């Protein structure tokens, strides 16, 4: 007497798929462990002085495990930047989608943007630290900057009569002021409060956007 096959319901995973899913989860956990270790090492030793051996020792893994996930210290830093930049771009997309922000929306959005920086402060700090010796990393952070400046340009052109050069300059300065405030809040949180930074930035951005 032959036993009939047990049919799998929709959405159910086979044992092979489950094993693959577990392996993927373990891989992601190991990558995150290495990234967290790299941040601690870069903060303690500086990016230029840190080595892959330092990261391996801090993470408590073997060299083979490190090279299974990353080719070099530069690739580790690139991955760190990409993670926070994806989140950055997601927040910037909210601003872009708004089209015509009110002052209340602007203040709320600036608070979320700055909150993201503070939450990931160590990763942002080591990222900027690495730019001094790895200038090619600028390409990794340029996408979010372009999204924000392009959105500001469109908003200012739709609300005020300005030459394109002035619009572009104002957009660059507004984004630069936001980045500078974020860096100050992360690197020297005692200098001024988050609420003060948000209030001043809201005033500056709202004035230029005519809201």
Model description:
This protein has two domains: 15-70, Homeodomain-like (Arc Repressor Mutant, subunit A), CATH 1.10.10; 73-209, Tetracycline Repressor, domain 2. Helices cover 77% and strands 0% of the residues. The chain has helices at residues 15-45, 52-59, 63-69, 73-98, 103-119, 121-131, 138-159, 164-187, 194-209. Helix 1 (15-45) packs across helix 4 (73-98), helix 4 packs parallel to helix 7 and helix 5 (103-119) crosses helix 9 (194-209). The longest helix has 31 residues, at 15-45. The chain is elongated, with a radius of gyration of 22 Å.
What's the architecture of the largest domain, going by CATH?
Answer: Orthogonal Bundle
Average pLDDT number: 88
Number of domains: 2
Q: Which CATH C-level class of the largest domain is it?
A: Mainly Alpha
Class computed from helices, strands and strand pairing = mainly alpha
**Element order: H for helix, E for strand:** HHHHHHHHH
The CATH topology name of the largest domain reads: Tetracycline Repressor, domain 2
Radius of gyration: 22 Å
In what range is the share of β-strand residues?
A: under 5%
Q: What is the rounded distance between the termini?
A: 80 Å
Low-confidence parts: none
Number of helices: 9
Can you tell me the CATH superfamily of the largest domain?
Answer: Tetracycline Repressor, domain 2
Shape: elongated
């Amino acid at each position: 007497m032959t036993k009939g096959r047990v049919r799998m319901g929709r959405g159910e995973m086979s044992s092979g798929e489950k094993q693959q899913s577990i392996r993927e989860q373990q891989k992601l956990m190991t990558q995150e462990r290495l990234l967290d270790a790299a941040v601690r090492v870069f903060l303690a030793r500086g990016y230029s002085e840190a080595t892959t051996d330092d990261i391996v020792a801090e993470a408590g893994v073997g060299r083979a495990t490190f090279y299974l996930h990353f080719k070099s210290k530069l690739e580790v830093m690139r991955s760190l930047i990409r993670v926070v930049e994806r989140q950055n771009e997601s927040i910037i997309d909210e601003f872009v989608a708004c089209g015509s922000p009110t002052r209340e929306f602007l203040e709320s959005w600036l608070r979320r943007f700055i909150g993201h920086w503070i939450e990931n402060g160590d990763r942002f700090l080591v990222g900027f630290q690495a730019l001094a010796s790895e200038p090619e990393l600028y390409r990794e952070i340029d996408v979010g900057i372009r999204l924000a400046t392009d959105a500001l340009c469109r908003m200012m052109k739709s609300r005020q009569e300005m030459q394109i050069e002035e619009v572009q300059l104002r957009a660059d300065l507004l984004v630069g002021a936001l980045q500078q405030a974020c860096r100050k809040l992360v690197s020297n949180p005692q200098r001024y409060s988050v609420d003060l930074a948000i209030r001043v930035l809201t005033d500056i951005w709202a004035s230029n956007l005519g809201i």
